[in-house]
Amino acid sequence: MWILGIDTSCDDTGVGIARDGRVVSNRVASQTLLHAQYGGVVPELASREHTQVIDGLVELALEDAGISLRELDVVAATKGPGLIGALLVGYTYGKGLAFALDKPFVAVHHLEGHIYAALAEHPQVEPPFLALIASGGHTHLFEVQGWGQYKLIGATLDDAAGEAFDKVARLLGLGYPGGPEIERLAREGNPEAVGLGVPLKDQSAFAFSFSGLKTAAARAIEKGFRRADIAAAFQGVAVEHLASVIARAVKATGYSTLLVAGGVAQNRALRERLEDTNLRLLFPPKGLATDNGAMIALAAWRTWNGQGNALNIPAQPYLPLAT
Ligand code: KG4
Ligand code: ZN
Question: What strands lie across the sheet with 129-134, from one edge to the other?
Answer without folding.
Answer: 149-155, 139-146, 129-134, 257-261, 280-282
